[in-house]
């Protein structure tokens, strides 16, 4: 097996060729919520997203919800790490208001 660590998400390609994900920051929420953190602070290969959406298809409003979930992460980082996340947070809010 091969172990990768990406922002406290541990994923393993096991001996059967399957991707196994262990997320220390897991929560009970919409299945789309975690996808945005993967695109903002690192990324899995494109085949991961194709496979994901083959199983869980994009629902109406997916892109808007991704912006909303992205805002959550940016506000959280602004709170924890300071003003470097202020401008992108406000930009995401303005984009959401325009939609």
Describe the structure.
The protein has about 100 residues and is an alpha+beta fold. Helices cover about 50% and strands about 15% of the residues. It has four helices and three strands; from the N terminus they run βββαααα. A three-stranded antiparallel β-sheet has the order 1-2-3, with no helix packed on it. The longest helix is centred in the last third of the chain and has 20 residues, at about 60-80. The radius of gyration is 15 Å and the shape is globular.
SSE order and pairing:
Blueprint: E1 2-6, E2 9-13, E3 19-23, H1 33-40, H2 46-55, H3 62-81, H4 86-98
Antiparallel strand pairs: 1-2, 2-3
Helix pairs in contact: 1-3, 3-4
State the separation between the terminal residues, measured CA to CA.
44 Å
Gyration radius, rounded:
15 Å
Percent strand: 15-25%
Q: By helix and strand content, what is the structural category?
A: alpha+beta
Q: Count the beta strands.
A: 3
Give helix and strand order, one letter per element, not per position.
EEEHHHH
Separate helix tally? 4
Arithmetic mean pLDDT: 80
The amount of helix comes to 40-55%
Strand order of the largest sheet: 1-2-3
Low-pLDDT segments: 1-5
Shape: globular
* Main sheet properties: 3 strands, antiparallel
């Amino acid at each position: 097996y091969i172990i990768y660590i990406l922002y406290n998400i541990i994923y393993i390609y096991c001996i059967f060729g399957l991707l196994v994900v262990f997320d220390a920051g897991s929560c009970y929420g919409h299945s789309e919520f975690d996808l945005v953190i993967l695109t903002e602070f690192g990324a899995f290969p494109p085949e991961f997203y194709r496979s994901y959406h083959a199983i869980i298809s994009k629902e109406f409003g997916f892109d808007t919800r991704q912006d909303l979930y992205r805002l959550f992460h940016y506000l959280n980082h602004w709170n924890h790490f300071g003003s470097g996340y202020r401008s992108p947070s406000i930009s995401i809010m303005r984009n959401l208001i325009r939609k």
